[in-house]
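Thread: Newbie trying to understand structure tokens

Hi all, I'm a second-year student working on a class project, and my supervisor (Dr. K.) asked me to get a predicted structure for one chain before our next meeting. I've only ever worked with sequences, so writing a 3D structure as a token string is new to me. If someone could post the tokens and maybe explain what I'm looking at, I'd be very grateful. Here's the chain:
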Amino acid sequence: MRQASSALIDLLNSSGEFMMADLYTFILQGGGAYRYSGAQTALVDDHGNTFALGPKFERSKTKLVIGVQVDELDVKIYPEPTDLLGSVPWLTAAWTGQFDGALLQVERAFMQPYGNIVGTLVLFSGRISDIDCSRTGIDMKCRSHLELLNIQMPRRLWQPSCTHVFGDNMCQFNRASLAMSFACEPGSTQTVIQGPPSTSTPYLQGSIIGVTGANAGQTRTITGFVSGQSVTVKLAFLYTPAVGDQFQLLPGCDHSLATCTNTFANQNHFGGMPFIPAPENAV
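---
Reply by user tm_fold:
Sure, no problem. This is what the structure looks like when written as tokens:
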């Protein structure tokens, strides 16, 4: 059963005419929600969210199934060169992995008259699993969140390196205690941010978060850190940072016992088994 507002229920129970349109919401893994209208104009829903007029969308049918069957949705996107995700063309964003692991929600909006959205119904919500790009479009295969129930793996893996996510409830290390903020300096690009302070804190494999400016709220993984000079990220930011934009650095961990002990003094919560013999010596 799908939930609906009382106003939408009253509209559907009435004999009056109404119009419908699809609304698409993309939530990127690195932060940021991008909303697009499947109609011929931009729309504002009953919660005040604006759905811009972007690329053209085509999707497969949705269904409502009782149980744990994984629902799939195929979405085809036909962007124009002028359609941008941030400051990046859609095709370029798809090729460079901006949609990897992103979430997609498709809603059906009911309007009376056109442009006045009385309410919406969620038709599909899930994760973008496969992406195929061509010169003219993007093919996305999305699977519902029930797909997570198909993952077959033990809760704990017996291996030398730590299995915890750095900073989670099992690790219990407070990454914010070593956070550091700085202002972006001239010469920065979407992949290399200039101006981090000089420090001995291990920010390699850590995170950089946009605090102000066009990239506010976006998070990227640090793949290169030169103390006092630059920060290199794995996935490009959607906007070129402006001089003075604030960024925050969070430390990273290589999940080894030495780093956990000597750098973070968190060995009591180390989640690996470093003294397990190598497979060839286990017997």
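A couple of things are worth pointing out once you decode it. The first helix runs from residue 6 to 13. The chain has a mean pLDDT of 91. Feel free to ask follow-ups in this thread.
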